[in-house]
Amino acid sequence: MSLKIENLHANIGDRQILKGLNLEVPKGEVHAIMGKNGSGKSTLAKVMAGHPDYVVSGGSVTLDGLNLFEMEEPDQRARAGLFVAFQYPMEVPGVTIANFIRAALQARLPQGGELDAVEYYQHLYEKMDLLGIDRKFTSRAVNEGFSGGEKKRCEILQMAMLNPVYAVLDETDSGLDIDALKIVSQGVNAMRSPERGLLVITHYQRLLDYIVPDVVHVMVDGRIVMSGDKTLAHKLEANGYDWVEKDIAQTA
Amino acid sequence: METKPDINIDRSIGDFHYDIDYEFDAGIGLTEKTIDYISDVKKDPDWIRAFRKEALRKFNSMPMPTHWASPDLENIVFENIRYYLSQGTQPKRSWDDVPEDVKRTFERLGIPEQERKFLAGVEAQFDSEAAYSNIKAAVGDQGVIFVGSTEGLQKHPEIFKKWFGKVIPTGDNKFSALNSAVFSGGSFIYIPPGVKVKHPLQAYFRINAENFGQFERTLIIADEGSEVMYMEGCTAPKFETSTLHSAVVELVALKGAKIQYITVQNWSANVFNLVTKRGLAHEEAEIKWIDCNIGSRLTMKYPGVIMKGRKARGEVISIALAGDGQHQDTGAKMVHAADETTSNIVSKSISLGSGRSTYRGLVQIGRHLKGCKNNTECDALLINTESRTDTYPAITVRGKENACQHEASVSKISAEQIFYMQQRGISEAAAMSLAVNGFVNDLVQQFPMEYSVELKRLIDLEMEGSVG
Asked: What are the b/e assignments for B68-103, b being 16+ CB within 10 Å?
C-alpha cells in the first residue's frame, strides 16, 4: 500500500519539467522532497492533483494501486484520497471556510446523504483548536485577506477535516514564523498514522526538525537523484545543493 | 451541495399550467374597446376609465426605446397579446373558496404554507386578478390595509386617488403608459402612522395563460413613522410564445417611514419583464429596494428613489443572473431632491453562457443642495467566454458639499480557483455554484432567511448545465 510514482514525465507548454521521476511513499511513512527552486517540486504536486496547465507525457502515479491518471477530474482524485496543501492557496471570495469545508465533505457523501451540522461544527472546532485557529475564522471567506501563516493553517485545517489517505504538503513552511511553524507542524504530526502517507515538499531543512521524515529525497531537474534518512537533510543544509550535483557528477 | 433528485423537482417548480375556463377575457389585441371591457368588468369609476384611455393614447404615441434599449423589444407583438383574463374580480379570503385549479397552482408553489409559517399577509394573483388576499387579524386590527388594486380603488378611494400615478407619471416610459392603460391586480397597501408591521406582507404573481400580458399595479403608502416589508415572487410556465409582464410599482414613505420592497423573480425564459418601480421618500424616510432578477428573456428594471425630504434615504440592492440567451438590463435611479439625503446602490450581476447583463445607473444631485451622498458599487461576474456585461452609469452631481462615489468591477471565476476547489473534492459544477454564491453572498445576507435559502437554490439551478 503506497503512493507510487513511476517514471513520471510532465510538461507545461513546450517545457518539460518532470523528467522520469520515481518515488514511493508507503502508507504510514512521512517522506520529504528537498530541492532548489525550479527543480520541479511544486510541479509534482500540481501534476498529481490534475492541474489543467500541465500535460503528463509519460509514467504513472498510483494510490494503493489505483491509477490516478485514469481519473480525469481533480475532484475525482481528491475523493480517491489525495490531498494537496498548496504553497499559494487560492482565495475563494464570499465562501466561508465553514461552508467550503462542508461542501467538500458533502461531496464525499453518497447521493442524498446529509452532513449532520452539529457534529460537523464540533469536529471543525476541535481541529481548529488543535491548530490554534480562532473560532471567528469559520465565518471568514477562504484565504481572503489572510496572512501567509493563516493561509497555511487553513490548508492544514482542510487536510485534517478531509482526512486524506495521501497528502502532499507543498512548502508548508514558507511564510511561517517559528511559532506558527511549531503549531502547523504539530497539526501535521497529529495526522501521522499507519493509515496515511505524507509527502512533505520543502526548500529548507528547518521544517524537518519539526516534522521528522522517515525518508528524505533530493530532487534535481525533474528527477529524484538521491534518497536517504533524515540525516540527509542536515547534510544538504550544511553543504548546499551544489554538493548533491557534484556528488552525482562523480558517481555518474 | 444540493443532491440531484431535489434539483430535478425544483427545476419544474414553476413550469406547469392548468387549462382554466376564464369567465372574463378581453380577447386579443389592444384598442379602446379592450379598455372599455376591462373598465366594465372592474366597474371602474369614470376617472380611472379616462385615465386608462389617456394612457393608451400615450402608449400608442411613444416610440419603442430601442435607441438605447435592446432591439429585442421589437419582437413584442402587441396585437397578439391577451390583456385581461380572470375568473372574477373578487379575491377570496380563504384558500377553501379559491377555485380548485388556481388553489392547486399556489399550493404547488408553496404559498399557503409560507403564509402559515412567516407572513403577515398574502395576496396571490393568477393572471389578471388576485385569487386570494388576506392578512392576519392582528395586522388588520392595527388598521393596515392590504388588498388588491381594484379593491383599494373601490374601498379606499380617498387614499388611492391621492397617490395613484403620482410617483410614476403615466408617460414616464412606454411600458408605464401601457400598464396605466390596462392595469389589473397588484397590491394596495396602507400602513397607518407609527404602525410597524413585524412580519412581511407577500404578493405572488403567477402567469398561467399563453400569449398573455400581466400588468399589475402596486401602490404602497407608509404613513408617518410606520414600517413595512413587502415581498413579491413571480413565476410563469415555459411557453413557446412570449409572455409580457409589465408592472408599475409606486411607493410613498411619509415622514420617518420605512419601506423595504423585496423581489425574487424566477421568470421562465419566454417572459419579457418590463417593470417600472419608484419610491418617494419624504423627510427622514427610508426606501430600500432589494431586487433579485433570475430568468426571463429580457428584463428591464431600474428601481428608483426620489428623496424629496431632508435626510431621506434611498437604497437599491440588486442581484441579476443572466442565463444563456437571457438579457438582464437592470440598475437603479437615485434622485436627490433635498439636503442631506443619502443613497446607496449595490448591484451584482452574473452572466452565464451567452447571457448578458447590463447595469444602468442614474444619480442626480441638484446644484442648490448640500450634504448629499451617494455610493454606487457595481460588480459583474462573467462565467463563460461568450458571457457579456455592460455598465452605463449616469451621474450628475452639482453643488459643492455633495459626495458621490462610484466603484465598478468585472471579474471572472479563474481556472485556478476552480482547480483549488476541485482539489478538495468538489465537482466543477458545484465549485462554480459555490463561487457564484460567494460572489453575491454579502447581498444575499440582506434577504430574509426564507428568501436567501430560496435564492441560493435558484442560483444553483441556473448554474446547472452552464459548465462543461
From this structure: ebbeebeebeeeebbbbbbbebebbeebeebbebbb
Q: Are B311 and B340 in contact (CB under 8 A)?
A: yes
What is the rounded distance in angstroms from the CA atom of residue B1 to the CA atom of residue B436?
13
- Is B362 a domain residue? yes
Query: In this structure, is residue B163 part of a structural domain?
Result: yes
Q: At A214, which amino acid appears?
A: D
Among the partner-chain residues A50, A94, A113, the one whose CB lies closest to the CB of B438 is A94
Q: Do B1 and A78 touch (CB under 8 A)?
A: no
What residues of chain B lie within 8 A of the CB of A166, using their CB? none
Domain count, chain B: 1
Retrieve residue B220's grid coordinates. 404602497
Interface check for B421 against chain A (CB to CB < 8 A): the answer is yes
C-alpha R_g of chain B: 21
CATH architecture for residues A2-251: 3-Layer(aba) Sandwich (3.40)
Q: Which of A77, A83, A141 is facing B438, going by the closest CB pair?
A: A141
User: Residue ranges per domain, chain A?
Assistant: 2-251
Neighbours of B415 (CB within 10 A): 11
Chain B residues 435-454 with CB within 8 Å of chain A: 435, 437-442
Cα–Cα distance for residue pair A249/A244, rounded to 1 Å: 9
Candidate from B416, B426, B434 with C-beta closest to A90: B416
Q: What is the pLDDT of residues B251-281, one digit of tens each?
A: 999 999 999 999 988 888 889 999 999 999 9
pTM attached to this predicted model: 0.86
Tell me, yes or no, whether B146 lies in a domain. Answer: yes
The answer to whether residue B323 sits within a structural domain is yes
The residue segments making up the domain with residue B336 are 4-463
Quote ipTM for the complex: 0.96
Average pLDDT value for residue range B95-105: 86
- What is the rounded distance in angstroms from the CA atom of residue A15 to the CA atom of residue B389? 36
